[in-house]
Amino acid sequence: MIKNLKSLFVTTEEEKTGQQVQPPKEKTGSGVNPEPVIRETSRPIDNAILDRLLKAIEDNNQADFDYLEYRRSLKSLEALPMDETVKFQSAYATASTMGVTLEKLLASIDFYRKVLRNEEDIFKKASKEQFSINVDGKVRERENLNNVITEKSQKIQKLTEEIRKHQSEMDELSKVIHAGDMKIKETTANFERALQVLLIQMDQDAEKLKKYIK
Description:
Blueprint: H1 2-9, H2 13-18, H3 47-59, H4 67-76, H5 84-96, H6 102-212
Helix pairs in contact: 1-3, 1-4, 4-5
């Protein structure tokens, strides 16, 4: 049913293949120039979305002869070599035999427009919710991550500065340790030399005393 309904508003690939390209006709003086089909644009129609909108129309199809039946009548005249005005008038003449008036047709169009506008409201609400979840929510998540990165970067910078300071302190301590070590070694060497001088002198004196004193 959706496929049949879609053919009332959109020219299918099969129809495109069988159609001949007609030059655009000038507007008549009536001021009424409705488009019988949706014309192709550089951006193709999303069929899933179109089917959803058409289903809403189908689910709200009014009883008796209304705009949809009129559109079917108009569609049946599409391939005939008639002026657009004649096609609309011929379809309306058929509708008139069933008690349809222009006011009823326009009211029926307005009814289906409201159905589509209601779908638009539902779509916008769903889109807003999806935007809140998938965009706003992710933006906040990204901002939180950015704050975490900034905070951790600051900590890293602080730690790096502290490490650099500690490294400098270690270098100074290494110098102090080296100087202290060298000082102790030098003092130890001096002590050993002085000690040896005294011990040697004492040993020599002891030997001489044993030799000379009896």
